[in-house]
Specification:
single chain; alpha/beta; TIM Barrel; 2 domains; eight-stranded parallel beta sheet; eight-stranded parallel β-barrel; 24 helices; elongated
């Protein structure tokens, strides 16, 4: 369809789009790993959904291709199915149109990659290439227009538009999703979003998903204040709840959506449809309502521009912890690593830590978090207990066990209530290695994403860009493995962590300075942040053999294994002597070291110090 023809249709009429696809397919076929795959495995079910919306009065139907991009399909083993699944999606929609008694427009549905909550984060050129591949497959099969929908980040939808416009002259409907506060992730308000999008040769700017009809109306009102652009609105049925393993949406009445359509038409909205939880009954009610309506003329924005500007994050301060100040002064820092207790008692932890700290040779205690995916007291809670006793801590925080909301909640509590000032951001061992292999990890972000979360909290904003009532000032630590199997990948991730806002790094335990020298040479140039080396005093030959063969990320040199094997009963002396030498070497080249007590016998660390 030509852009000019599409614009002409929108001048004096309201077009009705369809409603939810995923929830309708769930009702038809049950739980599946990927609704886009149903274009191939259950095409009749997809056809019936299209047909139901057409019979309800929809003039635009969207292809069942919302997540049919390589980025989302690849983890499911469907990365090479992009062309086929998108083509099949268009084919099914066209068959539904051919069976209709009136003209129907087919919109190629393109959803976001979900990069805001993904461990993998492609570069802009890669993102454009992913969207280009999907959009090209949709256009080649015969869509009339594109609907880019449910984007949370303005930056991502702009890249998607660039990808489509690199080859296509079809109309584009660009829809972001907004919070109840009226902002996208990044704190972008609707008017600002519209001003950024309308200059990118899109024909309609809109909002969909997240919010129900009444909550969406203020968003549409602000969008309507932007001149020379048509507006679309596709609300959810309302706020969902969880029932068993299902996400269930409220049974909003069709009359409720009819009233929404009437109010939206009064704001000048040109395309109306539904999102999650909506059904053909909701679409029918809106279609009947707008038959006798004409969209109001949108009005000029003279008073909302100032309110539409995003709030700038507070400038980040230099970390305030004593640990960080020592690193900044280039004073060699020593930490001792502890594991949280398995039960509810902290008495032994207090006793052992007090003994270690009484030596005056240790600056901080770093605290493991669910090492080997086993249950123990939460590291941030243990850190708070030790901080209350005047002991500086560096608790580890893994992204395995909490989603982004939970991670932020824990960090805010640790800062305000626990007095925690340093955090080591790690991805965490997968549940399959621990006592609960039947469970699944969360991993909405990896350690790089967690650093970004910490960095934003330090700026006074949450992950979504919402301004907080104050800012944290965490010293952010990260892990680095100088003996990783693929050093190029490890170095790239190290740089990504530094770029995200890391202040210092801690290595995996090392047993040979040459392992560090090899890594440092490969890294090239000056270290971007202070680094603390991990030192693990080995107790026996069998322990060394097990660590070398069974624990990921640990490499023990063959000569050391042989010398410990030959030492017999004196193997412990060999292991501890190496630890002393590694500590002495670290004092000459690195910012600090952390020591791992053998078998949780913390007092033995004093032999090294």
């Amino acid at each position: 369809m030509k852009i000019s023809d599409f614009n002409e249709r929108l001048k004096n009429s309201i077009l009705i789009a369809d409603g939810a696809m995923g929830s309708m397919l769930y009702e038809a076929v049950g739980s599946v790993r990927c609704f886009d795959e149903l274009n191939s495995t259950e095409p009749e079910a997809v056809f019936r959904v299209h047909q139901a919306y057409i019979e309800a009065g929809a003039q635009i139907i969207e292809t069942n291709t919302f997540g049919a991009n390589r980025f989302k399909l690849a983890p499911l083993g469907l990365g090479d199915e992009v062309q086929r699944l998108n083509s099949r999606g268009v084919k099914i929609a066209r068959e539904a149109r051919e069976a209709a008694s009136r003209e129907i427009l087919i919109a190629g549905s393109i959803g976001p990659l979900g990069i805001g909550v993904q461990a993998r984060h492609p570069e802009p050129d890669q993102i454009r290439a992913i969207f280009h591949e999907q959009a090209l497959a949709l256009e080649e099969r015969g869509v009339d227009l594109f609907i880019l929908e449910t984007f949370s980040y303005i930056e991502e939808i702009l890249l998607a538009i660039e990808a489509v416009r690199s080859f296509s002259n079809l109309p584009i409907v660009a829809q972001l999703t907004y919070s109840e506060e009226g902002t996208t992730f990044g704190d972008v308000r609707p008017f600002l979003a519209a001003s950024l999008l309308k200059d990118k040769n899109v024909q309609v700017v809109g909002a969909n998903c997240t919010l129900g009809p009444q909550s969406l109306l203020p968003i549409l009102q602000e969008l309507s204040n932007s001149q020379d652009i048509s507006i679309s609105g596709m609300p959810n049925a309302g706020f969902p709840k969880r029932e068993g393993d299902r996400i269930v949406y409220p049974k909003s009445s069709p009359q409720y959506f009819a009233e929404f359509a009437r109010e939206a038409a009064g704001l000048g909205v040109r395309i109306l449809g539904g999102c999650c939880g909506t059904t053909p009954a909701h679409i029918r009610a809106m279609a009947e309502t707008v038959k006798s309506l004409r969209p109001a003329k949108t009005h000029s924005a003279t008073t909302v521009v100032a309110a539409a500007q995003p709030v700038a994050p507070t400038e980040e301060r230099d970390p305030e912890s004593k640990f960080w100040k020592r690193l900044q002064k280039k004073e060699f820092s020593v930490c001792v690593e502890i594991d949280p207790p398995k039960g509810i008692a902290l008495d032994r932890i207090y006793e052992q830590v007090d003994r270690v700290m009484a030596s005056k040779k240790v600056d901080a205690i770093d605290i493991n978090s669910g090492a080997m995916a086993r249950v123990g007291m939460d590291a941030l809670v243990v850190a708070g207990a030790l901080e209350a006793r005047g002991i500086e801590t560096v608790p580890h925080l893994t992204t395995r066990d909490q989603n982004i909301i939970g991670l932020q909640a824990m960090l805010l509590g640790a800062w305000t209530v626990g007095g925690v000032r340093n955090v080591l951001a790690i991805t965490g061992d997968p549940p399959s290695v621990g006592d609960y292999p039947e469970t699944s990890g969360v991993y909405e972000v990896d350690s790089v994403g967690l650093v970004k979360i910490l960095h934003r909290l330090n700026q006074g904003t949450d992950w979504a860009g919402k301004t907080l009532g104050g800012q944290t000032n965490f010293t952010i630590g990260v892990a680095v493995n100088p003996v990783a199997d693929d050093l190029d990948v490890e170095i790239a991730r190290f740089h990504a962590k530094v770029e995200a806002g890391a202040h210092f790094a801690m290595t995996q335990p090392l047993f040979d300075p040459e392992h560090w020298h090899t890594f440092e040479k490969k890294l090239g140039g000056k270290l971007p942040i202070p680094v603390l080396i991990g030192i693990w005093p080995l107790n026996s030959y069998k322990q060394a053999l097990r660590l070398n063969n069974e624990v990921p990320g640990i490499v023990i040199p063959e000569p050391l294994l042989k010398s410990m094997g030959a030492a017999g009963a004196a193997a412990r002396d060999c292991g501890f002597d190496l630890a002393r030498r590694m500590l002495a070497w670290a004092r000459t080249e690195l910012a600090g070291a952390y020591l791992i007590p053998p078998f949780k016998r913390y007092e033995e660390i004093l032999e090294i110090l």
